Task: structure prediction
Amino acid sequence: MKYTDFHHTTVEGDGSCFFHSIATILLVEKDGWFPNKQSVKTKSRLLRKKCVNWLQNNLDYKIKETGLTIRDEIEEDLEYNDNETNETIQDYLNYMKTSDGYAGQIEIYAMANIFNRNIRVYIHNKDKFSNSGLGYQMNTQKDIMKDIFLYHNLRDRIDNPGLHHFDPLYPKDKLAKEQLQQLEHFKHKKASPRKSIRRKASPRKSIRRKASPRKSIRRKSSRRKASPRKASRRKASPQRNVRRKASPQRNVRRKASPRRKASPRRSVRRKESPRRSVRRKASPRRKVRTTKAVRH
Result:
């Protein structure tokens, strides 16, 4: 297998890289493109849960290549593993339930059986991929469209212990075929005659429903009749019916005060003064013509 034949993408190395890688491959198969980190983490949590449940329910499953059971594989891992907290099979399963529980060959057996697909794990050697010794074959034939391909940095693990990591590998030919199929599917979906033809209304919907007799009959008002006490008009009290007599003070018209009568001064028209009525006579000075001065 050539390295250039695959899309080699990376996932987070948080202890769940194996499940992140499987989740990435499944999401690309479903949507046709590489997913974001959040969707990968959500899918990987579900895969981890399925894996642990399968191991717990299939401890007596015999592996084809070795003839050992899952129980034997876990006990062997506990014997050679440096993790002191895992002493029993249940401790191992509880450890795998945590988010930082690193998966290995035992979890590869479980995921291959859950999906009934071959899981092939490669290491990168120059420009080629070679078998890493990990993986599990459910079918002897290699199918590039169905098999799950993973990358494992086994060489780095030997040189630097504790830095082992899984990455997803997706065949380029497979991705091209899936994208082409999805493109044709969308084109066919847009051009389908079913959606272009307007649906006729069904006869049941077009016929107007007749009003049921119960609804057509006008309901009698459920209003209670007024009680005789409320219906009878209250008689006015004798105090209200008797018209109040005007007080003698208000009926007596007030006499005008003597001050308000017009004073005799204002009623008598003023006579013009004799000065204004007599026309002034011209002064004698104005009538006498001034004589010119005589020169001597």
